[in-house]
Write a structure and sequence with these properties.
The structure is a homodimer. By secondary structure, chain A is mainly α. Helices cover about 65% and strands about 0% of the residues of chain A. At the A-B interface, helix 6, helix 7, helix 8 and helix 9 of A face helix 6, helix 7, helix 8 and helix 9 of B. Chain A binds a DNA duplex (30 and 30 nucleotides) through helix 1 and helix 2.
DNA sequence: TGAAAACAAGAGCAGTGCTCACTGTTGTTA
DNA sequence: TAACAACAGTGAGCACTGCTCTTGTTTTCA
């Protein structure tokens, strides 16, 4: 590992640089701001040469997506250490979305047209938070009424969770789904401006209100 | 109105045709599938001529967005006649999203980069459903505990609703927000494939479970 | 040391939104 | 009815995109 050939070191460095520039372009110009030609220009290289490092624009997007999923999930894990609560998850995701709005849109917004993220690149990093959330929901005081949803409706999720090595009963799964979609939905609404302006200073309070409403 | 000049009739027809083709391209190829050049080709007209009818691609998008908002809201109003319930709203939106996934993404997904929808084009059609929902939530049996969110956090929404001629107290607004973001969040998750495959046959049951969880 | 692999360059294809100068046609008005 | 202005359509062109292919150069490895 340590003694690489100069060429290998250069390649590794260039690959990392491409990802850095890609992330920067994503942050400043959204998904459409990511241009392989512009990256090539910045690298001081002709446009066709960048295809030595990245098979296509879509491949770069896949890397950035995987990157972003890992980044939020890491943030959640970090913040969860002092304070293990559902609200912490929501607040951390909200904060992350504020810091990287375009990365947020990349992973939780509209999928890119004519692009299918390879499952192996997204499943594991993309499900980490939900698995954590399910664990926290399971610790909550039991809901007054039993799950009002037919067992087969939760089948795919139950199976999916078990493939990841976790197992919960249906009321917990249903509640997890409710919290999950509400949290993502709220952050999307805020980030995408669907509530209009004027929410900048009350985002966290809204998240607090939402989580309380959903978990009490 | 009836006796227009031939030129005016032709113009009206062409404008309608552009919107029809635009919607069709949106439905089949997503937002990136909307190309003014392709529309011009289909009209049998040179690409620059289409700018006689549409100021820019963004203007066409604005029309399509407004169109889509009106379409969902109409569907909700229609379905609400026999069965006035929160679930009906969710189920209708879900069904509409299934029928027009790309129009759904256009209005509830990631905003288009470098594009700001003019507020006057989206506010009225875009808020109809939420206003209706608030009305239904207000009729629900009161929540056991009072609103756990500071009054100022709901200020912008309270004001927004009042501008539209509706007025609710904070617990109702908070609950409306919770239901709203959860419903949109669930549909987004389903449409955008964030839960993975295998949910096609259980979408409505999931929506039912979600609404029940949130309104009981 | 010589062959193979990797890197880079440059031209080119097909597509995009949009502008501009230019004709021909239609509608209005003096 | 003749003149003029508004309108519709043309075609060339700009600046940009992703991506491919051929050619030449450099590095690595057997």
């Amino acid at each position: 590992m340590a003694n690489q050939t100069p060429r290998q070191r250069a390649r590794t460095e260039t690959e990392a640089e491409i990802i850095r520039i890609g992330n920067r372009m994503l942050d400043s110009g959204g998904i459409d701001g990511i241009s392989l030609r512009a990256i090539a220009r910045e690298l001081g290289i002709v446009s066709s040469a960048v295809y030595r490092y990245v098979r296509s624009r879509d491949e770069l997007l896949t890397i950035l997506i995987s990157d972003a999923f890992t980044s939020v999930a890491d943030a959640v894990d970090r913040d969860l250490v002092p304070q293990r609560s559902v609200f912490t998850i929501g607040a951390t995701m909200l904060e992350w979305s504020r810091q990287y709005p375009n990365r947020w849109a990349l992973i939780y917004g509209t999928p890119i047209p004519n692009y299918q993220a390879p499952r192996e690149a997204t499943v594991v990093p993309g499900t980490r938070i939900m698995v954590t959330l399910a664990g926290l929901v399971a610790e909550l005081p039991a809901s007054p009424s039993p799950s009002p949803v037919p067992a087969e409706a939760l089948e795919p999720l139950r199976v999916g969770l078990e493939e990841l090595g976790v197992s919960h009963d249906d009321p917990v799964i249903m509640r997890t789904v409710a919290v999950w979609v509400a949290v993502i939905g709220l952050i999307n609404a805020l980030r995408f401006g669907q509530f209009g302006p004027g929410f900048d200073s009350v985002e966290d309070e809204l998240m607090q209100g939402l989580v309380t409403t959903l978990t009490e």
